[in-house]
Amino acid sequence: MQDNLIPNQEQKMRLLPIGEITEYRQVEEALQKREKCLRKQSKTLVQLAKSKSLQQGNLKAALREITEAAAQTIEVERVSVWLYNIDHSKVECIDLYDTITQLHSSGMSLLKANFPAYFQALEEQRSIAAHDACNDNRTQELSETYLSAFGIASLLNAPIWLGGRLVGVVCHEHIGRIRQWTLEEENFAGSIADFVTLAIEASERKAVQEALQQSEAEFRAIFERSSVGIGLVDMEARIVDVNPALCQILGYNREDLFGKRFTDYIFKSEGDLELYKQLTSGNCDRLELERRFLHKNGQFVWTLVSISLILSQNGEPEYFLAMIEDITERKHTELELCESKEAAEAGSRAKSEFLAIMSHELRTPLNAIMGLSQLLQQEMVGTLNDKQKEYIDCIYSSGEHLLALINDILDLSKVEAGKEELFLSQFLIQDLCHYVISTVRDQAEEKNLQLITKIDQQAEFCIGDERRVKQMLLNLLTNAIKFTPAGEVCLEVKKVHQGLIFIVSDTGIGIDSSQFKFLFEPFKQLDSRLNRQYEGTGLGLALTRKLARLHGGEVTVESVLGKGSQFTLFLPNQASLQEEEKQFSGEIFGVDNDQLVEKPSTVKTHTSATNEVANAVHYSSSNGNSYQPECKDDNSCTDAINRVSTPHYPATYVTKKILLVQDEEQTAILLRDYLQAIGYYVDWICNSSDFWERVQNQKPDLIFLDLELVGEISAWDLLSTVRQNPNWQDLIMVTITSNTIATNNDGPSLDCCYTKTTPESLRDRALQAGANACVSKPIGIVQIESILMQYFG
Q1: pLDDT, tens digit, for every residue of 273-285?
Q2: Is 779 within 8 Å of 791 (Cβ atoms)?
Q3: Among 81, 250, 605, 650, which residue has the fewest nearby CB atoms (within 10 Å)?
Q4: Are strands 681-685 and 657-661 parallel, antiparallel or unpaired?
Q5: What is the DSSP code string of 614-651?
């Protein structure tokens, strides 16, 4: 269509079609509307940038301003801010502004797992402009649960990013007819999301600042009110700040200390400079030193000083922080405790020495009394009449009773002094029960009591100190028999998850429950009238409980007066020690780790020769000192003991030579007279100086060697040298040991290089050193006879 020109004097008029004018006006109106929207959006963004709530970090108020401004600017009914929770599993509505009600609300949430497409779009797209939200692939998941409920037709959502991480979304919701979102509106929604990010950052900064201010206030309060002195010192050792506690410790006020050198008040020690260098170089976190400070009054103050570094912003050391605690009173107490400790240690050493002396001095005469009594009982020096036999039997039984009493006192003293050590091994429950029952059977038969044994089939092995376990059970069984006039005594063994339970029950006189608290106290019987009726010291139960606790177990009691008592000994599992014990036994005794680990018998030889007595009788110790025969078979045991109880003469007519190396005169006389009486030639020496001459000249067939021999050359050296000489490999060596060795804190009395000085450890060591067999004091005739029969027939 061409323009029509109509001449009118000097002007020319241009005519336009009506349709083209309408289109031009529409474009112009659209541009004006777009320009108006942009100005409105720009004005809103400028206002938000100046918001005091946003600048001050007030997140709640800032979000209210942002949602209201966004709703009014792009003219939507609802604007909301949603943020992810801690585990990022859902978004929660922090603020929602409704323009219709002009109210703010919060609290709704959307689970991420229920709307996977929507949340994926948030993470991948700059914004979600859903014109038809119910049919848009990105938002249609929300239609049933959210969009339809509020009548939302169109959605304009902008993700909120913080530090490169999606933290939430700003939602612009249009209600009613479908709305076409413009590019400018999408850009504006993104800007609103950025302002939410700024509001969150400002809020976090405010929280950090408040926490820092709170921390500084708390530190200042601690600094001012702390009872520990605190000083801030620069890198040139000048005091920058001190708290009142440090002023009190040093006797100065703050003004006196400011700017002074910290080192002017502290007594330095050699090596301090090197320690400070390690601290400043970062080789250690802090220094802890005990140093003296000089008080204003000239006195010394002992302190515990902890020094650490405070770094500058660039990581360089800027200050020393010194924490100073006054320990002057503690130092004085420590000095007093040191003096008390030295006195206690001296007392402990004196006690240990006393125990060692008492053990030796008491056992030496007892050894002679019991040994010579046995010789008289066997009528080796002449026939006795009935009254003499009665007296000798009384002497021997009294000696046994006195020996048991001494053993209990010394054992209890060792346990209380912390000197007792447990030597754990694995042993059979069946053998244990057979031993203790056979040991007390004679006592029970004298009172016509029935002995009952019940062993759980699952209770096969026990791990513990075998000698001490036997001792505990014998104490309980002996007590049960002692206080049971008629009826029965029962030993029951049960396997429980935590360990083993040994139950000793009786039908005796019982115990009043009010007396239970005194039951395990040493040297105490519950009723003084019982002292006259039942002999004893009251040590057995006290020692039993202490030994049980030494194993990690316990002893408990249940009793009804007049009906009987039940004592329960619990020993916990020692599974962790089982493999160690197997390995140890394999190394020492050549036992295969896959085989049963058993402790070596009292008489251990290096030959496979056996004899009738050795097969029939197993000698073991119930209390560590008094040996009793344990019969494997009733008939063989009886026959063997009958033969042993009769004076024995060697089967050969060739007199065997025995060298007795013993410095105790009474023990030596006992052994010499007995051995000579049964037909042996005996040469006795009381020291080690004549040993080599006698061995070379006399050529003995057997040597009894006391391991406690005193002299320039120890008995251990003699034993070792004999075994190293190829000419004396077949010489029979039998060692004699004390059955209780008391030691002090400095180490064993026999050998400073050997730390285990129990009877078992000494016997084991002697066997390893080359001894053929070992006997323990007090020496029994049965022990000597079994050894002689084994080697000489």
Answers
A1: 888 888 888 788 8
A2: no
A3: 650
A4: parallel
A5: HHHEEEEESSSS-EEEEESSHHHHHHHHHHHHS----S
